[in-house]
Amino acid sequence: MHFISKTINHCGIDIAVLQEVDVYTKRSGRIHQAKEIAEILSLTSGVKWKHKFITSIKMYPGSYGNTIISRYPMKTVIRHHFKGKKDTEDRSFLLVCVKKDNKYYYVGTFHLGLGDEEMQAVEIKSILHKKFPGRAIIGGDLNAGEGTITHNIMCNSRFQMIDAGPEGTCTFECYDNLYNPKIDFWFASGVNVKKICSKVLSVDISDHRPVLTYVY
Fold first, then answer.
1. Half-sphere exposure (CA, 13 Å, Cβ side) for 4?
2. Domain boundaries in the chain?
């Protein structure tokens, strides 16, 4: 938790979306990981950080899911659960509304299921098209690479979202092979993205590397 918080602080990040987050599970020492990261950031930055969490899988005890951590006020607007097939895990999509500089942004996090990713991508785009067609940026684990059907759905289904970049950079198990695919993305619509500033951070916090993008 301290390494994640240190990375967020060091990079000057305002909002972070995280996947595979444990809340009160035995394997993680029964701590609320999202809450702890927000508390560490509050202590080290002098700003009160907030967090929102959505459960993907109940663990007994605790749960496992996605979180959004922000230095700005936010409220949850969508909590959507994807029921996995017989041999796949449940997944989730969380969307919040963040207020920054008197502007409102919709920020989302997702972790698509391997084998279910195309169907879940269609559902996310349908939800956004129906309810929130404006300023939105969503990020997470696509479980599919650039140029795949799933990636194309996120960019072009219902309405256009841009892949905020960077292109062609490994994000998964890069410590084994830097030519592994990029499967973690930010997709944006209705906001300005400085793609030249987007980058994958060369830190192996987990088997995925963080993707950083700049929105204004």
1. 22
2. 2-212
Q: Scan for tokens 């950083």, then name that residue.
A: 212
Helix axes 2-10, 33-45, angle to 10 degrees: 50
pLDDT of the residue at 161: 96
- List for the chain the helix, strand, coil content (%; round to 5): 25, 35, 40
Give the span between the Cα atoms of 10 and 56, in whole angstroms: 29
Give the whole-angstrom CA distance, residue 211 versus residue 209: 7
pTM: 0.95
Contact 92, 45 (CB under 8 A): no
E strand or H helix that includes residue 150? helix 149-156
Task: Give the 3-state secondary structure of residue 109.
Answer: strand
Give Cβ neighbours of residue 115 (< 8 Å, ≥ 6 apart): 85, 87, 88
What gap in Å lies between CA 57 and CA 92, rounded to an integer? 9
Q: Does residue 84 contact residue 76 with C-beta atoms inside 8 Å? A: no
Residue 98 has pLDDT above 90, yes or no: yes
Characterize the bridge pairing of strands 103-111 and 136-141.
parallel
Give the strand pairing for 15-23 and 74-82.
Answer: unpaired
CATH superfamily of 2-212: Endonuclease/exonuclease/phosphatase (3.60.10.10)
